[in-house]
């Protein structure tokens, strides 16, 4: 399976090197040629995440990725689109890297190191290829925008906190998905769970929003790019443990995160929103396993 993926990615890289990618800086996103037909390979590449992470069928997922990249090459070659293959290739590379390990929550020390290395590579490799091989700056991590947060942004943070506090405990406990995370009782285990939940939450925004969403927005209207990144994001969250009726929560969450990033252009802001939810998730998991902290009003007795 890994060989098939490596072969497909190598072929795509060769095609990029042969003509789709040049050493010169790329044109601004508005100058990149786009065409509705480009949605076909984009849907294939992003839809492969459902197989890779949702159903854990790597062989089928790699095959769909390969087909999507081939179609992207054909569409670029026809002149209808420009640089679609190189950008979809980066998304495919990230997905293949992630698929090399199981995503079930595990806070053993070795597992946390493995998560850090693999997920770190899934962000770093596309970034390095984009910045130093392609010579562009589409993938960026805008921590500081130089703009003050508006009153609406502050109100939204409060609303997010209240919504997470009310909804997430009900979801985790009534669905039983809290059992997808390990039981934590000792201070060391609780600390590792806290670090793991927040580290993965931070990575989510670096990869799904600043990488996948940013690359897709170069070629498609924001609403289409947002739907496509949501497919990848939600599939990842499903394997991570947000199952049962979790997509009813994770789909709106991922779409809102993409739209919020588009409005604010601030990684810091969307990350804080995400980490607020993750703080609630952490507390709920600890509560579900231990009965404390008893701070949630909407949990079954």
TrEMBL record:
Pfam families: Rce1-like. The keyword Protease applies. InterPro entries: Rce1/LyrA-like_dom. Keywords: Hydrolase, Membrane, Metalloprotease, Protease, Signal, Transmembrane, Transmembrane helix. GO terms for biological process: CAAX-box protein maturation; proteolysis. Residues 190-280 form the CAAX prenyl protease 2/Lysostaphin resistance protein A-like domain. The chain crosses the membrane at residues 39-72, 115-134, 154-173, 193-215, 266-288. Residues 1-23 form the signal peptide. GO terms for molecular function: endopeptidase activity; metallopeptidase activity. The keyword Protease applies. This is CPBP family intramembrane metalloprotease.
């Amino acid at each position: 399976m890994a060989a098939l993926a490596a072969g497909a990615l190598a072929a795509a890289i060769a095609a990029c090197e042969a003509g789709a990618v040049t050493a010169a800086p790329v044109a601004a996103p508005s100058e990149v040629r786009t065409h509705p037909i480009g949605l076909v390979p984009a849907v294939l590449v992003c839809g492969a995440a459902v197989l890779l992470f949702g159903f854990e069928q790597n062989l089928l997922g790699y095959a769909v990725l390969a087909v999507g990249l081939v179609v992207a090459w054909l569409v670029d070659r026809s002149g209808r689109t420009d640089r679609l293959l190189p950008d979809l290739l980066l998304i495919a590379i990230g997905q293949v890297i992630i698929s090399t390990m199981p995503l079930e929550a595990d806070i053993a020390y070795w597992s946390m190191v493995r998560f850090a290395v693999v997920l770190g590579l899934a962000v770093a490799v596309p970034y390095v290829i984009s910045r130093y091989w392609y010579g562009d700056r589409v993938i960026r991590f805008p921590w500081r925008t130089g703009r003050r947060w508006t009153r609406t942004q502050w109100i939204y943070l409060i609303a997010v906190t209240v919504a997470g506090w009310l909804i997430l405990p009900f979801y985790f406990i009534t669905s039983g998905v809290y059992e997808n995370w390990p039981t934590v009782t000792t201070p060391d285990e609780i600390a590792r769970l806290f670090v793991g939940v927040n580290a993965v939450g931070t990575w989510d925004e670096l990869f799904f929003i600043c990488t996948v969403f940013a690359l897709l927005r170069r070629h498609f209207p924001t609403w289409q790019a947002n739907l496509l990144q949501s497919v990848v994001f939600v599939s990842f969250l499903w394997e991570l443990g947000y199952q049962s009726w979790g997509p009813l929560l994770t789909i709106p969450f991922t779409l809102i995160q993409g739209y919020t990033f588009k409005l604010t252009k601030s990684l810091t802001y969307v990350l804080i929103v995400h980490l607020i939810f993750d703080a609630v998730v952490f507390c709920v998991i600890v509560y579900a396993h231990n009965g404390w902290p008893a701070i949630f009003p909407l949990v079954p007795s």
